[in-house]
Structures
1.
Amino acid sequence: MRLLIVILMLIVLFPQPAEALWKTNLEMHVIDVGQADSIYIELSNGKNILIDSGDEHDGPKVVSYLQKRGIEEIDYLIASHPHHDHIGSMDAIFESFEIDRIYMPSVKYHTTYYKRLMRLVDEFGVEQIEAKTGVKEKLARNIKMEFLAPLRKKYKSLNDHSAVLKIDHGKKSILLMADAGMASENEVVKRLDDEKIDVLKVAHHGANTGTSNGLLKKANPDFAVISVGRKNKYGYPSKEVLKRLKTHNVQVFRTDKLGTIIMKSDGKSVRFFTEFHQS
Ligand SMILES: [Zn+2]
């Protein structure tokens, strides 16, 4: 009994000792850009990654979000694929930040947004690297990224050309599916071997064009983040996808419900915060 009292007193005097030891060295911000994508990742060595810019209306929001964090330069800019909800505000990104290099899949598109992005890459003389299966980069001491897709030069759907990115941080890993559909997802599943994924950034705003049982079984994620607009006209995320995530016991975070979602990792565990409940 006396021992129990001592233990209880220690708990009261020193609450959550693990908290002090927990040191973030990777943060992922899934910025609430409605029915679009823009994901900012910050590393402990000061380097950063920006995946997509949101759509043509999201420029001011994304720029001010990053500027508030004191960001002046983007080390790794990724244009996941040429749809407007991913590259629509790349002009604002290029005009507001110094871009070190850009990764994009080798696929052409006929829209003004795509043509404008290509012109900006040229004008600013930004190094362009093709995003495709196998392209990898060491980002920091225990952080690396690798593109798992696109594998092929040709797919029927533009979404399947999406740059799918895996980031490993110590024992933790994140899989960012962009808008990849089943053709590409099946190839990603093969590429995953038996690697567990901790955090899944769900493909295509939760559309039922991906996030199959096959992927969920193989990747076995604990958490999923969905970037999706409030009451969007497509009805995303689809009921089927949410059901599959539930069946596989995945905890889901949605930007339409929670606003910007922030994940912090120390390489051993991950924690989630929302725009309104930050640490
Ligand atoms: Zn999209």
2.
Amino acid sequence: MQAQHTDREKAVPMFNAFQRRVPDDISRWLAKVSQNPIVEAFPEKIDIHPGMDSSMLLPTEMPEVLSELVSKPRTRRTVAYINVPYCETRCLYCLFYIKPYRNKEESKAFADTLIKELQLWSDKPVQKGEPVHAVYFGGGTPTALEACDIERIIKAVRRYLPLANDCEITYEGRLSGFGTDKMEAALAGGANRFSLGVQSFDTKIRQAVGRRSDKETLIRQLEKLMSYDQAAVVIDLIYGFPFQTLETWKEDLRIGRELNLDGIDCYQLRVFEKSPLYKYIQNGKLPPGPDHELRAAMFQEAVQSMHEAGWKRLSISHWASNTRERNFYNYYAKTRTDCLAFGPGAGGNLSGYGFMQHRQPDAWAKAVESGVKPIAMMTKPPLFWELGRAVAEQLELNFFNPSQLAHEFSEKFATLWNPLIDNWTEAGLLAPVGNRFELTVSGQFWQGRMTQHLLDYFKSQTK
Ligand code: SF4
């Protein structure tokens, strides 16, 4: 593995080249200037997570790279992700479904193997020593596991990872089947935050896409979980489902707020062609969800009504009613952190190298049982990956500050993005505030697209 240079070191020769080259056609990154930027600024399409391009490591290169990464202490803020691959049923819109949950034996076998995986690197510099600031049990459905296994795996994480004293430990899941035995097991294990996929409280809407519980059950379960008063309770709400209207969305937000939850996350539904929901809509079994214009109105409604109710905006999609909810993992996972990863299908990154573990539980378990970290593939650090993360970090928090990037990486960055900034300001996506630019509500709606455009524009200037 070659020594890693900092982005600042690499920026100097690249920018000498940048100064000599002919300016690129930038029209593809400009927004349409109109009276309705939240709807019309850019063409409608599904955005994927913004980032720099990365290339795969050859399987023959992986052992040496991995061995060097594992032998060095981490130097960045760190999060850990644990993937639990089981779901009791498949939700129609989901691409993360891996395996149906079958029985107690499967839960026990999974927990046993996961604990072995946590031990594999526990004496290696990459895992021991430097603190881990946030842990996230995601999936899949971590709440599908048996109560005793939930408690065991959280305790194992606390034992084998060097958690910071204020480490956020999130246990994700769904409320269906999450009884008091499992709630108490997760709390006994040490979870201090629950992230629960409510999606919509409306019984007809949620059951149409494969969720099980009705509104009354959800409310009862959430009230029970909050009554322990030991952990932040946060729910996801999603806009874009079949049968959703602006009125049902307002009602979802109202119920969430009135439950006195610690946090509410609002996401826009992306209907991917590979999802069962896409086929249901194509075959006429379900009507399409709200169109682009209505989804924009739903986003606006969330921003406006949460603000009016006094909830604090933590990032583009996250709101808190109090200071118990911190949203560490969701934010840090998008920043210049390292991410340790465990479980089938989990993805992590170390010093800019990405890695993905075997997705199928059998292949994952076989590797762990033979004493090998179950990594299936790795990617090289994209050129300027830290800059890419620094840009994403800013937009995730609703602002863009080229001066800060200039201070941190290269003075060229103070003016590099001016053509985009000028256009986006005129189009109503950015508003100048001192040295920086805040995203307007319209800009927030297009935040993913704008982040990718900033990175693509940067790449075009440094080829
Ligand atoms: S429970 Fe979660 S991971 Fe499982 S299918 Fe539903 S949305 Fe996907």
3.
Amino acid sequence: MAQLPKRAKVVIIGQGGIVGSSVAHHLIEQGWDDLVGLEKSAIPTDIGSTSHASDFCFTTSHDKLNIYTTKYSQAFYQQRGNYVKCGGMEVARVDDDERMDELRRKVGSGKAFGTNVSM
Ligand SMILES: Cc1cc2nc3c(=O)[nH]c(=O)nc-3n(C[C@H](O)[C@H](O)[C@H](O)COP(=O)(O)OP(=O)(O)OC[C@H]3O[C@@H](n4cnc5c(N)ncnc54)[C@H](O)[C@@H]3O)c2cc1C
């Protein structure tokens, strides 16, 4: 294991997950240096949520920031030739009207925030 420095401008705890990786990327992009990333498992993580994710980029959300980060991520990975655009589906069972209503609301929110989701 590398020797840890006594001081650093930034310490990122959880370096192996997508959030720690993203924080490091954006800080370095903005000119920060002297960063230390701490990770208790592995980089990339082998126990964190990131290692379990199915890599679905949700473009339906009631959260504008979520949609922004999804669109940002799609462009980010596309620029690096590392994005498989295969589409996806969210489904409701027959007679599950509540779930169907929620899907309709999510599509409405997605469209309001500029995605091209459809029902
Ligand atoms: C089964 C599953 C499927 C999912 N599918 C999707 C999907 O399709 N699309 C989507 O957008 N999202 C999906 N998600 C959600 C997404 O995976 C998480 O929101 C995201 O990975 C969280 O990233 P994170 O970096 O915050 O956490 P993590 O990936 O959990 O990373 C945190 C890291 O911190 C480390 N750590 C914790 N404590 C310490 C400590 N004290 N010291 C040092 N290191 C520490 C851990 O070892 C870990 O590596 C899914 C999640 C799961 C569980």
